[in-house]
Amino acid sequence: MKLQNGEKLLFIGDSITDAERQRPDGEGLFQALGKGYVSLVDAFLQASYPELGIRVVNMGTSGNTVRDLEQRWETDVEQRKPDWLSIMIGTNDVWRQFDTPFIREWHVLPDEYEATYRRLVERTLPQVKGLVLMTPFYLEPNPSDAMRKRMEEYGAIVRKLAEEYGTLFVDTQAAFDRVLTHLYAATLAWDRVHPGTAGHMILARTFLGAIGFDWNRG
Amino acid sequence: MKLQNGEKLLFIGDSITDAERQRPDGEGLFQALGKGYVSLVDAFLQASYPELGIRVVNMGTSGNTVRDLEQRWETDVEQRKPDWLSIMIGTNDVWRQFDTPFIREWHVLPDEYEATYRRLVERTLPQVKGLVLMTPFYLEPNPSDAMRKRMEEYGAIVRKLAEEYGTLFVDTQAAFDRVLTHLYAATLAWDRVHPGTAGHMILARTFLGAIGFDWNRG
Amino acid sequence: MKLQNGEKLLFIGDSITDAERQRPDGEGLFQALGKGYVSLVDAFLQASYPELGIRVVNMGTSGNTVRDLEQRWETDVEQRKPDWLSIMIGTNDVWRQFDTPFIREWHVLPDEYEATYRRLVERTLPQVKGLVLMTPFYLEPNPSDAMRKRMEEYGAIVRKLAEEYGTLFVDTQAAFDRVLTHLYAATLAWDRVHPGTAGHMILARTFLGAIGFDWNRG
Amino acid sequence: MKLQNGEKLLFIGDSITDAERQRPDGEGLFQALGKGYVSLVDAFLQASYPELGIRVVNMGTSGNTVRDLEQRWETDVEQRKPDWLSIMIGTNDVWRQFDTPFIREWHVLPDEYEATYRRLVERTLPQVKGLVLMTPFYLEPNPSDAMRKRMEEYGAIVRKLAEEYGTLFVDTQAAFDRVLTHLYAATLAWDRVHPGTAGHMILARTFLGAIGFDWNRG
Amino acid sequence: MKLQNGEKLLFIGDSITDAERQRPDGEGLFQALGKGYVSLVDAFLQASYPELGIRVVNMGTSGNTVRDLEQRWETDVEQRKPDWLSIMIGTNDVWRQFDTPFIREWHVLPDEYEATYRRLVERTLPQVKGLVLMTPFYLEPNPSDAMRKRMEEYGAIVRKLAEEYGTLFVDTQAAFDRVLTHLYAATLAWDRVHPGTAGHMILARTFLGAIGFDWNRG
Amino acid sequence: MKLQNGEKLLFIGDSITDAERQRPDGEGLFQALGKGYVSLVDAFLQASYPELGIRVVNMGTSGNTVRDLEQRWETDVEQRKPDWLSIMIGTNDVWRQFDTPFIREWHVLPDEYEATYRRLVERTLPQVKGLVLMTPFYLEPNPSDAMRKRMEEYGAIVRKLAEEYGTLFVDTQAAFDRVLTHLYAATLAWDRVHPGTAGHMILARTFLGAIGFDWNRG
Amino acid sequence: MKLQNGEKLLFIGDSITDAERQRPDGEGLFQALGKGYVSLVDAFLQASYPELGIRVVNMGTSGNTVRDLEQRWETDVEQRKPDWLSIMIGTNDVWRQFDTPFIREWHVLPDEYEATYRRLVERTLPQVKGLVLMTPFYLEPNPSDAMRKRMEEYGAIVRKLAEEYGTLFVDTQAAFDRVLTHLYAATLAWDRVHPGTAGHMILARTFLGAIGFDWNRG
Amino acid sequence: MKLQNGEKLLFIGDSITDAERQRPDGEGLFQALGKGYVSLVDAFLQASYPELGIRVVNMGTSGNTVRDLEQRWETDVEQRKPDWLSIMIGTNDVWRQFDTPFIREWHVLPDEYEATYRRLVERTLPQVKGLVLMTPFYLEPNPSDAMRKRMEEYGAIVRKLAEEYGTLFVDTQAAFDRVLTHLYAATLAWDRVHPGTAGHMILARTFLGAIGFDWNRG
């Protein structure tokens, strides 16, 4: 387990991270962490590593793109001084290109996505013990689907940045693809974007694998 | 225009037909016809053929399969004595096979679908002036998608029945496919099943074409 | 079709345009365009001209008079830089003279209406590719009704301005009058002002006629 | 004043009488009489004739036609044993012919209206001290308006029955027409059917005039 | 009738005047005048003097004392430039002395009441055509009841001011006392302060008497 | 203390007893006993005599008269087999004579009140260990007030029955009168009937005095 | 893994099982399984064994005791024909003895608990492939706490029955006790009964361990 | 009785004091004092000492620690100029250490608690006639429970300050402990912190004992 006693782990991202978390602060009592993978990660940590006292904070915000993350990075990430930071962003950067194709100023294209993401990683690396970059994903198994292909471009950017800067990396798309060989996409998510509990479980377990969670504990 | 003065046109189907229609009777004042293609058909008829006084009734019910239609056929279709009847059913018959694959009693397989649909057509034909059979559809352009292929099987059954019994026929899937060459599926429907206003406009115009609506009037 | 690839079409007006549109921006996902003729125009364009990618924006506001339009013209029209602009205003300018006759500062009389409308047209003409002026209307067929006569005065002002400045012109009152020879006013609107779906269909089709929509497409 | 000490005065009718009265019994505490002319009549009687202790009951029901009245006559009128009964019905009998012209079974035509009304008067006359027949009305001053002419037919039937059976008679249309020479219809009612407080005041005062209310008391 | 064509009549006071009026402006469409005596006065004027076009405005505010009135006098009275002003205040000035006797800063004692009221009358007299001073009242017939006696003190102050400054005067307590000889207080008001429709009718008719309303019109 | 270990104490009455108790059973968790004197009695017993385990049940029902009590006596009292029963009824029997004087069938006059009350006492006495009869009360100190005098008649009937049958007796009116010499009625209750917490405290303490509560415990 | 392809796994119990599941059937789309350990079990199975197609059904009902389970056993368990059945019951059987100690008919004492539980196991064993008995638990680490000791008695009965009938057994109390050595009870549950997500994770993982879940998959 | 005629008694504290009091000012009509011990204290004073006219004010705020009290001390205590002040604080200072152990900045440790509390007492003593310090409490009878022990530390600090500064002192924990020997903690409070009415009665009576309330009055 890479996390140590009393460390703070902060998650930032879009609606998949948000999952109805409490506001303004995404931590505290009574489902403050929302109903998604962040809450599951916290539950796993408390159940299996209660002695570590890991503090989990959820700062996801529905509808966000990487452009929105940069705008609130100081208040929502830096001022909270996390020891570990997990980023999962890109869904809306891509989705708006497909569900509102005519509103072009809502689209965050690959160049802007990479440049912005890179700025965030660079300014944050010196401030944390560890960084986890999670790819965005799309629950569409057809490799020639236009939006699937576009999402893979963004996932490749995340992978490239993780390699360049030596951070931890979570390939969420690959994790989902294993299940999509057995289950139709609509079983996991009504809109191919927002998964149900099974999908959040996949995200949580993949994340925990990356930070060295021991499944034989607790 | 095939419909004549003072005739009653009844629509039956699932949530796409229902579209929040009034209950128990799907006609009357203030959006009694719902927010979907049925309401648009009625608007076109009133705007372009006000002198005909066509009476439109919406008896769609969300979640229905052809199995459900048969159960309420006497009260919701026959007792209302329509002159014209339009049927669009099959979405849920297919969808449940993909979004709740483990609950098998919710699945209406092709054999049951065809047999039930046939019984409904046979008992109704002698009672009406005209019957319009509309295929179910799925807003997924990938021809090898499992659910798309399944939906086409059901559409083919509708086409076969229309030909056998000589009814009017509306190929909704074909109408959508023309638009899907230009717009990504998510532009038209968040779940590839329930279209927005543009999709309902496509349904309404395709239906009206089948009954001989003259676009140069009004 | 006068509109070309990728152009933005903005509608401004009162409650008939507004029709429960999204706020603050009248565009985007999930009925952002409201439930009225603007949404129908957008649906027709997407269904028949999907390859053009026309971007439709609804900035109607319930209760507005031309005096209100001028106050928000910079933020709600000019800063959004539409290629095409459609204006339908005047209902409340007239109605307040009849439903609250004693509150005289709510009345926008013909002189103020024309002067204000003229200022808006003049400052906007250089900024857009095309302008569509739609008359206000009243669903009362009796030619000697006091409010009907007053509304026609305002409609005549709109026609005069359209001719003077060479803009496109939509005579909504004339379009409704054709249907009112067959249907009683209360069939179309409970208050003779806010039409149901049939009335909005009339508005949408009349508007589309003015911009050269081809009914034999799609 | 025709009413005497301790008598019960019951009103029956449609939404104009109902006016959000309490259910199931239209009497008691806290606005049990609704917000319309019945409540005003009661207020006048309590304010000017408190010593009489007149008991006012409101059994109006929104949407009713004379056909509906007959169905609930035994429970809602006869079993309550009023000393005086006031009837105002006919609005919906006529209105449905104009706002939902295609749903013909909702229309109560003049012959049915007169025959039903006559049956109600004949069976009730022996049971009460006095009967007040109020005409239905339409707040449209144009004498050639189709619905106005139709409403006058129904008013004439009420007048004829009042004369035949020697009951009290209230010509509500005439009372409104005096005001309509000064105020536009929309000032009194947004739909020309449901008046605001001023219209209910006209109804109440006209009714009270018919039963001999002394305006110089109280 | 003292009021003339096109004049504006403004009412100010506490919850009895307020009666759920619209905010911020107590005039306009759809029960903007509330459910109390102000709405009834307006209804009487429209029904009997429609040709005068009297504009009625309700600026009552629940819970107010004369101290509160003075604070909002400029915005809520003077800036609205009424031709006629009616004031009914004092209920809460007295009531707080009895229902929250220990919170002494809520009590407006007679000296402050008179001084403040006098300032309001003096500054307003030059600005209006007429002023109507209505006493506060208490629906308790027992002359030795402590709160009744206190309320009469305040009523006497209003009478004295009306006489000194030659304004119109309405003795609401006297009007209620006539009815209270026949009806128990609880019949008129559950808390002896807020009357039902009958009580508001008494207030409206007494007010109208003071301004010369002709009961034989309309 | 007259109550012994494990006994059940049931309260029946009108809205003053009810006080928003839980339904259908007036006992259990989370304010099941309502917000009135019954809940306070229970709190006193738990706080001072926790070792006794007295079970308190509230079966009060708003609006009830003694006539209503008799109708539900079997299910709401007898089937619950209380050891001790407390009755406080009569408020509505009297109040309806004053707030709805014209609806005479709602009035329970003294003869009916006494006869019904007597039947209830006689059938219940053999089934319980103890019976507590509490008078109804009216928070009006004026001895010549009509409703106060009427309420005293009913209180006298309760006293007479308590003496005849040798039950415990609580003179609630006398308890309130002591406080009313210092506080105006409106301080205790906005309608002179439903007291606030102070009034319920008076009821609870007077009741507890009658069953021998020791104030020096706990 | 003991469960095989296409089998149905049904959970029955009280509020901890219920967790806001859908009604009447606890399966289907959109959080039909509630927010508790049942939903987590289903998520683990779908994520790690998607090829098995295990069908999970939640029939928990808040507030239930074993007495309530027996009453609905036929409809809620037997008619649904599960292959595997999991039972967790006893919390309320015990809790009512402590939070409503005076309402003795709500208490299910150990003898009744064991006898009823035994009847359910005996009639169900022949109908299923496997039975999982989960103990009730109490999140109180103090071994001398009265309710904790009582809960352990009930847990011991469950263990005894599991051994006698050779079913699978889950000691939930032991699983929680391991975590309670590190975390105070209030961290896991505000009332020591209803855990948050971490507590449900402990239940889910302990249950899955009993049926042979392989943590190294997925 | 230590309080004298017309004095103001202000309570400050956390949710146990707050108990849904009115905002912003915790005094006035209609349950302005909330549903807890403050309202009961007021009720006792009004019922037994109505002639004193004690003014009770509740300024409790849910979730507060002593750190929060200091921040609002000037506006919520000093500017209101109470004659007597009662303080009960510490529950949340302790609780956060146990229910959110990982969010350490929410914890108010003993040193900060004592120092802050001391500052508040010192600055307030010169401004009031009397000060009542009430200990925080925890409804857990097990003396070795970690949170119980911690709460006793804070209670000991309160006792020490009361002795040092010679204020009145209320040992709420001791008062509860007497009842906890007979009733299980869950009978008094679902979370061992927020008591029901019985617990608030214990607090109110213990407080009143400290200020010399005479239980034989009223």
UniProtKB/TrEMBL annotation, chains A, B, C, D, E, F, G, H:
InterPro entries (alphabetical): Ester_Hydrolysis_Enzymes, SGNH_hydro, SGNH_hydro_sf
Pfam families listed in its UniProt record: Lipase_GDSL_2
Gene Ontology molecular function terms on file: phosphatidylcholine lysophospholipase activity
Domain SGNH hydrolase-type esterase: 11-200
CDD domains in alphabetical order: SGNH_hydrolase_like_2
Gene3D superfamilies xrefs: SGNH hydrolase
Signal sequence coordinates: none
PANTHER family: SGNH HYDROLASE-TYPE ESTERASE DOMAIN-CONTAINING PROTEIN, THIOESTERASE 1/PROTEASE 1/LYSOPHOSPHOLIPASE L1
Protein name (record): GDSL family lipase
Species of the source: Cohnella candidum
